[in-house]
Design a protein that fits this description.
This protein is mainly α. Helix 2 packs antiparallel against helix 6 and helix 3 packs across helix 6. The longest helix is centred in the last third of the chain and has 25 residues.
């Protein structure tokens, strides 16, 4: 197999996929503010900004900007760490939870429609291949 030619074809297809609404929604869901809200939702507790940066694989400066924007929107609040007053924790507000759940519903509806159009066998294959690619 000519893997360079396959890579070119894959890049061409990926460019087309990036223009689809469902894929754009998925990207937004797995990055930035919504991803951070999802992390807080999943853990169900306050989080250290450093932990958010690690899971997002971004710099502490990027996390600071992200959290400042989210705080201005009322999606999160900052709290003092009870075990170490020098540290700050981040918690999701009720508004942040509402925004996250709404965005999650929108993305799931959109992606579910794409998968339904693919059919059961192709959906299983897509998930299997993505899982294989994403393994460490």
């Amino acid at each position: 197999m000519d893997y360079k030619a396959a890579a070119i074809e894959l890049l061409r297809i990926q460019a087309k996929l990036n223009r689809l609404k469902a894929m754009q929604q998925m990207d937004g869901y797995t990055q930035g503010e919504i991803f951070a809200l999802g992390y807080l939702h999943e853990t169900g507790q306050e989080a250290n900004p450093k932990d958010i940066g690690k899971v997002m694989a971004v710099s502490s400066a990027r996390v600071a900007v992200l959290l400042n924007n989210m705080e201005k929107k009322g999606w999160i609040c900052r709290l003092s760490d009870q075990s170490d007053n020098r540290k700050t924790l981040v918690a999701m507000t009720d508004l942040g939870e509402e925004i996250f759940l709404e965005r999650q519903r929108e993305v799931l509806d959109s992606v579910s429609k794409v998968l339904q159009d693919l059919g059961e066998d192709d959906t299983r294959s897509l998930i299997r291949i993505h899982e294989k690619i994403s393994q460490d």
